[in-house]
Automatic annotation (TrEMBL):
GO cellular-component term (any): extracellular space
Lineage: Eukaryota, Metazoa, Ecdysozoa, Arthropoda, Hexapoda
GO biological process, one term: peptide catabolic process
Record-given protein name: Carboxypeptidase Q
Pfam families attached to this UniProt entry: Peptidase_M28
Source organism (scientific name): Henosepilachna vigintioctopunctata
Family: Belongs to the peptidase M28 family.
Single GO MF descriptor: metal ion binding
Amino acid sequence: MITKRTKTICIITAILVMTVGILAFIVTRAIGSENDMSKCDNFLSESLKQEISSYGPIVHTIVKAIVENDGKGTTYKELSTFIDTFGNRYAGSENLENAIDYMLNRSIIKNLENVHTEDVPIQTWIRGQESATLLQPRRQNLPMLGLGLSIGTPPEGITAEVLVVTSFDELESRKSEALGKIVLFVPEYISYGKTVIYRSKAASRAAKHGAVAALIRSITPFSIRTPHTGMQSYDANVTKIPVAALTVEDAHMLKRISDRGQKVVVNLKMEAHFGDIKTSRNTIAELRGSEKPEKIVIISGHLDSWDVGQGAMDDGGGAFISWNALVMLKALNLRPRRTIRTILWTAEEVGYVGAKQYYKDHKNETQNWNFIMESDEGTFTPYGLNYVSGNRGACILEEVVKLFAPLNATSSLRSDYVGSDITLWLMDGIPGASLLQRNENYFWFHHSPGDTMDVEDPVSLDKNTALWAATAYILADLKEDFPRN
Ligand SMILES: [Zn+2]
């Protein structure tokens, strides 16, 4: 017989073992295994270590200025003014171009250097009016958002029976039922990275088996009946069919109804279509380097957003910490040896269009790029840096994050992939980083009407601005160039 006391001890022991296990996992993930760290003694000379630690007082100055003194609250103030003035900033809209002009002007007012924009041609996609209506077994409006680059429906819409599946595998096993139907995908949300394939490929997979349209549950772990949009792409050689996201709640309801053997019929209306080719712009500002101005450290985020919500989190916060970090360094008269360049990308949401254009236009210059940073996963409580780099670079960054104790952000995570707009350069072997942060509920709000200023926190914005400014400053000022991967 197990006594109550033994049971309690067992439970406590189990909890302790689990806690220690989880902690050990977090620590090894955060700082790399002990082996990797000890290798840093081979990669870094004592003098380089000393050089890095000599930036401690400068980090202190930056943090104090941004988190406590004059800079306190300025990122939130600048961002909220911007968001309240322009709202969402969809690629191809006049609103986005007005927002870009505004940032150009703010950059000049703040005495940033080499302030300019660079043109980016954009094939526009227009959502138009859209709706989904449940017709059978009862009539109900279903809040929805068409997915990026979807084709539209005829004006009267598409009315068809709905085939509900939970996975691509289930669709394959029931492919004979798909002909002439609207296929609704209701996958379980595992993680954004794992589940987003249902957004990008729903239309193509359903069309392969003769479906007339596709619907998905929104790609989010949490919902208060808000649909989430995002990009999708059609495979070559399949018929293009309209595709849209329903709310999680409505997708679940349709699945339950269908599981009971009842027929589900939906009318889907979408005016979605391609518009003109328009010109947007990447926005650039710099702090020119004092000794090697041709060498560059980049900090970036994207100014455009989806056409729903306010784009405060995606990616207003990321753009504004990148911009205000430069403003604060300039105000503090901290000019590093190399140039720090802030880039506010355009048209990220519609396929990294601004970044791709910049990649093409700046091919000749990138041998001088030392390090590239991007914030596009929210600006929550920072832990440190999430980076892509070679071994020696990793050791340098491990030393750098030690200096962020005043921000409580001394962790780092070495990844294969960080960021979205900066991917092309990372793939070319240029080292880079994004924020390592709490990432609180990012995908609750992402690409939805819920992405508003209320998601942004002034204190976290200050901390991230300081972390961004300090990282960029140190890497742009070190005597030696940051090692390539
Ligand atoms: Zn984004």
